[in-house]
Specification:
Among the domains are: 198 residues, Cytochrome Bc1 Complex, Chain A, domain 1; 190 residues, Cytochrome Bc1 Complex, Chain A, domain 1 (2-Layer Sandwich), CATH 3.30.830.10. The radius of gyration is 27 Å and the shape is globular. α4 crosses α30. 54% of the residues are buried. It is of the alpha+beta class. Helix content is 41%, strand content 18%. One of its GO terms (molecular function) is metal ion binding.
């Protein structure tokens, strides 16, 4: 259940470099990546006069991040509580942070904290594991946990009215965890599958070795994941001993964020947790790493491109100089910086910098991408030269000031997500030892260019750099097999209702009739552009998300496959008014966060809305597509595609398409290095003129703005955009129903198999039956912990770590998939269980208990989808892309509320075909 949660400390990487950055996020989250902070600087901030922080007005601190705007208390038993109001939606997130992680595990058992995190979902006194799964499903929200070296976090998001249930769950788990040996034996199988999954990631293997080198001889030497041999030696008694040592109210911080009354909420917390006794806590192990001598590593990967990396020891998130280090990392990753300059020079496919701070130490990672078969030594030398020059000469002062402005302005967006706000407060209090996230304003304001340069001179020392080259390696073509169908015998236990505990039954068994959701303001500009506006005044920020509807598989001329990729990449190279660097500076000066292309976005503070929109429109409507950069971008795109075509990940995706689509289907078209190199700049200009049209564009504006203001500003910026010629055909042809087949894509770097079962469907989301299918899928695999697939493949057998099923809808076609990860010898067993469970949905209606659970889950989930402005915008864009009504969620709610078990069975019997599911496997040769 360890998962990666995005944070502002993880800088976004564009394009194919996300391949590594996602893996870096997964691995560094285990290592305790936290939002920036510094305990020493927090004290400085608290000592300043009210209303003044670092010479800047306190208005720079958003209300949602200010100590003055929250209710906080420490209960007599030592539990620290912070309650943060946020009226974005009738939603609440609870996040309980236990101040212990893998750094305090027994020697030789690095995964003890992680194993205990898993067992927290296996039941406690007054709430067994089946009841917990049922309660979680009925809440309709998201609930999970993560383990780091320093902190273990448990978080729930649900409707505000369900807060008493959330708190009761955490109180029971804090004091009466079951921790039976039988439960541990079952959960151990699942956690070992998680280890196999991470060991199949080249980035994880790299970061695991990197951490062992950088933090040798300290508790950070081993990450929080753990090892299979140590789990084999672990007993439930070992977990119980760790639990009793560290899981105490006086070693926890509880953050509650959302639409709640802070005063009555604090009273509820006191009633729920107040009777839990405090405990004496053991002494903590100190962490004081010594910078290691330079070392070189090398790894083979299944990535489409290679990476040269340089890692340096850096401060932890509670260090006095953390804010300086964070600004340094921002400067090093800036697209105006010297490191990124390697990209437009044609010397790297991507270049950037990642900062991964743990609480007491951290590391920085410079990385540059090179094409498969490219010169890794040259890439490494170029990156070293840039960093050495920065070490000696320093960085531009204006980049330091731009980074400070951006970090401070970015805090203003905190209230735009309820769960994100809870995470930000949790990281500030638990990881950074701050009084509030807003204390970072003073810390950032205090940073000077001189301090940044001094730290760069110290940290970017090649004598302590760990260098590594991650080289892409082909793993072979898919191996096809004969089709097959039918399920092997799988003995499932009979379904039975799970009685809820008395304290949850009253609130969670009630199924309320859905109330309609307030709808956005929708208008269409004279040029055909659709504008959707959803005002929300929880922060002084405005967000814009847009898309130009496109289908490159139908729009790219024959022989020009890849022209869309080249076109998209060139948007980053300036406009007809500003070159690349001048445009980025204009964004930094506001500051604003902007991206352009077929999907485009803008985030800006309310007073700068017009400035931000003007720059976005300039980039979207007047891209320069400079001839001087075209040759480099085209070559880089072709080089990246050469590696992509040979990568196991791409071959896996393509094998899934081949399994379910007819030959010569447009979706099977692929760009090649040759087709990309045949693209000319004129081809790009023609493709842009053809594919970018206002009458195919939807813009969603959310945040601190009125519909009238949004329309006026958007129309001023985009109203002059005119379409030329008839609309292109963008709807893919319908496809026949697929038949069963199987394929295996070898992947030498994986020790675990990734498995997808897939088939095409005879309906789309325009068919009302898809609501019944979605409701049935909640029973089958969409309901996660309460679903049949999760129960049968993970809880009962330990075959897998994760399993799920889902529908993918298009305007003209739909697909159904089941996916899981398993050891090779468990692939066939897990597949048999899947086919049994899918067949059972076709053969018989779900039980009344399952139907009630699925309805409660989906109906309660609908309001939760509006607890983030990003989610609101994404939802509207998705509906617009499918030409579905914007009140589709209300229609779904009515359908779910009225559906019967017979309706679900009828839909599954008509549309789902267990015998036609194709099976595609990536990884080692499976046992089918």
């Amino acid at each position: 259940m360890t998962q990666c949660t995005a944070s502002t400390a993880s800088k976004r990487l564009p394009g194919f470099a996300r391949t590594l950055s996602i893996a870096l996020c997964a691995a560094t989250c285990l290592a305790g990546v936290a939002v920036p902070g510094a305990s020493a600087l927090a004290q400085q901030a608290m000592d300043m006069p009210p209303g003044q922080m670092g010479g800047m007005p306190s208005a720079l601190v958003p209300a949602a991040l200010s100590s003055a705007q929250v209710v906080r208390a420490t209960l007599p038993n030592g539990l620290r509580v912070v309650i943060v109001p946020d009226r974005l939606a009738p939603v609440v997130t609870t996040e309980i942070n236990y101040l212990v992680g893998s750094a305090e595990t027994p020697k030789g058992f690095p995964g003890t904290a992680h194993a205990l995190e898993h067992m927290m979902f296996r039941g406690s006194a007054g709430l067994d594991k089946d009841q917990l799964a049922s309660v979680g499903a009925r809440l309709g929200g998201s609930y999970n946990a993560d383990t780091t070296e320093d902190v273990t976090q448990y978080f729930y998001t649900a409707q505000s009215r369900d807060l008493p249930v959330l708190l009761k769950i955490e109180a029971l788990r804090m004091t009466g965890l079951t921790l039976s040996e039988a439960d541990w034996q079952k959960e151990r199988g699942a956690i070992e599958q998680e280890v196999s999954r991470d060991l199949s990631s080249p980035a994880y293997l790299y970061l695991e070795q990197l951490q062992a080198i950088l933090f040798a001889g300290t508790p950070y030497e081993h990450d929080a994941l753990g090892t299979r041999p140590s789990f084999e030696r672990t007993k439930a008694a070992d977990l119980r001993a760790f639990y009793r040592k560290w899981y105490a109210p006086n070693n926890a911080v509880l953050v509650i964020a959302g639409d709640v009354n802070p005063v009555s909420t604090l009273e509820l917390v006191e009633d729920t947790f107040g009777g839990i006794p405090r405990r004496a806590l053991p002494a903590r192990t100190p962490v004081a790493p010594v910078p290691p001598p330079a070392k070189t590593l090398s790894f083979a990967t299944d990535y489409p491109v290679g990476f040269a990396t340089l890692a340096f020891p850096m401060p932890g998130s509670s260090a006095r100089d953390f804010a300086v280090a964070d600004i340094l990392s921002d400067v090093l990753s800036s697209q105006r910086g010297a490191l990124y300059q390697l990209v437009p020079q044609g010397r790297a496919l991507f270049a950037g910098f990642e900062y991964a701070p743990k609480q007491l130490a951290g590391f920085g990672l410079a990385l540059a991408a090179f094409p498969k078969g490219g010169d890794a030594k040259r890439t490494m030398a170029d990156m070293r030269a840039v960093l050495e020059k920065i070490r000696h000469d320093g960085v531009p002062a204006d980049l330091v000031e731009a980074a400070k402005r951006r970090e401070i302005a970015q805090l203003q967006f905190a209230a735009n997500s309820v769960s994100g706000l809870a995470e930000l407060w949790s990281n500030a209090l638990a990881f950074q030892k701050l009084e509030s996230p807003g204390d970072m304003v003073a810390a950032y304001q205090a940073v000077t260019p001189e301090a940044v340069n001094a730290l760069a001179a110290t940290l970017l020392d090649p004598a302590h750099a760990v260098s590594a080259v991650l080289t892409p390696e082909s793993s072979g073509q898919p191996v096809a097999g004969k089709g097959f169908g039918g399920a092997e015998s799988f003995g499932a236990t009979p379904d039975k209702p799970v009685p809820l505990p008395a304290w949850a039954e009253k609130d969670l068994t009630r199924l309320d009739k859905p109330e309609p959701t307030a709808q956005p303001t929708v208008s269409t500009l004279p040029n055909g552009l659709k504008l959707i506006v959803w005002p929300s005044h929880v922060s002084h920020t405005i967000q814009l998300t847009g898309q130009v509807r496109q289908t490159p598989a139908l729009e790219e001329p024959q022989g020009q496959e890849g022209v869309s990729d080249v076109t998209e990449a060139l948007f980053a190279y300036g406009t007809t008014q500003h070159d690349r660097l001048a445009f980025q500076k204009a964004l930094d000066d506001i500051p604003a966060w902007e991206s352009a292309g077929s999907g485009f976005s803008l985030r800006v503070l309310t007073p700068d809305f017009e400035k931000g929109i003007a720059l976005l429109a300039e980039n979207e409507l007047h891209p320069a597509f400079p001839a001087s950069d075209f040759e480099i971008v085209r070559a880089q795109t072709a080089q990246a595609q050469a590696g992509e075509l040979a990568s196991p990940g791409h071959l896996f995706t393509q094998a899934i398409k081949v399994a379910i689509l007819p030959p010569k289907d447009p979706a099977l078209r692929e760009a090649t290095p040759q087709s990309i190199m045949h693209v000319t700049r004129d081809d790009v200009l023609h493709y842009y003129a053809h594919a970018w049209r206002p009458d195919l564009t939807t813009i969603v504006v959310t945040g601190d703005v009125t519909p009238e203001k949004a329309r006026a500003v958007v129309e001023h910026a985009f109203g002059g955009w005119q379409a030329e010629g008839p609309k292109p055909e963008l709807n893919l042809p319908t496809v026949p129903l697929s038949k069963a087949s199987r394929a295996h894509v070898p992947d030498k770097s994986s020790v675990q198999d990734e498995v997808v079962l897939a088939e095409t469907l005879g309906l789309t989301a325009a068919n009302p039956d898809h609501f019944a299918l979605q409701l049935g899928n909640e029973v089958l695999g969409g309901g996660l912990f309460s679903s049949r697939l999760y129960r049968d493949l993970r809880v009962k057998t330990g075959y897998v770590y994760t399993v799920g099923s889902d529908f993918e809808w298009g305007r003209t076609r739909g697909t159904y998939t089941v996916n899981y990860g398993a050891d090779p010898d468990k692939v066939g067993k897990a597949r048999a269980a899947v086919l049994h469970d899918v067949g059972a949905m076709v053969a018989a209606p779900p039980t009344d208990a399952e139907l009630s659970l699925a309805k409660a889950s989906l109906l309660r989930r609908i309001p939760l989808q509006r607890a983030s402005l990003d989610h609101i915008a994404s939802q509207y864009l998705y509906l617009a892309s499918l030409d579905l009504p914007l009140d589709n969620a209300d229609r779904a709610a009515q359908a779910y509320y009225s559906a019967t078990g017979a309706d679900i069975q009828a839909a599954f019997r008509q549309w789902i075909r267990p015998d036609d599911l194709s099976t595609i496997v990536k990884g080692p040769a499976p046992t089918w």
